[in-house]
UniProtKB/TrEMBL annotation:
Organism: Clostridioides difficile (Peptoclostridium difficile)
Domain (FMN-binding) ranges: 60-133
GO MF entries: FMN binding
Gene Ontology terms: cellular component: membrane
Protein name according to UniProt: FMN-binding protein
Residue ranges crossing the lipid bilayer per the database entry: 14-36
Length: 134
């Protein structure tokens, strides 16, 4: 009988420790997630006419979304934007913003609905690329 009680007590002890560790793990996850606040990226428009011909790469990171792009400029116009890397949560639709940037030849374009953080991060990456050609 004593052996069975020892085994039962040991099992209860492991269950209690497992539950405690689970709650500690959950608390750590909550703290990490609550500290992941996206940085508000300020995108400034650039006079494309001041950017030299060439292909430039730029990156941006807002703590939740990261983007790296290459931007081709020729004769004062953005010819092409390639997204080289886009780490996002649900922001895949934001990649369409490059079409608007090329069409309007400006970074002052509307963000893609439901993908605002990704849109702004891509816009900032394009700005950073263009700044290399000024």
């Amino acid at each position: 009988m004593k052996i069975r009680n020892k085994a039962t007590n040991k099992k209860k002890k492991y269950v209690k420790i497992s539950i405690a560790l689970f709650f500690v793990f959950i608390c750590i996850i909550i703290v990490i997630v609550s500290n992941l606040k996206p940085e508000n990226l300020v995108v400034k428009d650039i006079d494309i006419n001041n950017v030299k011909n060439g292909i430039y790469t730029g990156s941006a990171d807002n703590n939740l979304v990261k983007a790296t792009v290459s931007v081709e400029v020729n004769n004062g116009k953005i010819q092409n934007i390639n997204i080289l890397k886009h780490d996002h949560l649900l922001g895949k639709p934001a990649e369409k913003i490059t079409t608007s940037i090329i069409k309007q030849q400006s970074l002052d374009v509307d963000a893609i609905t439901s993908a605002t953080y990704s849109s702004n991060t891509i816009r900032k990456a394009v700005e950073n690329a263009l700044r290399k050609g000024e």
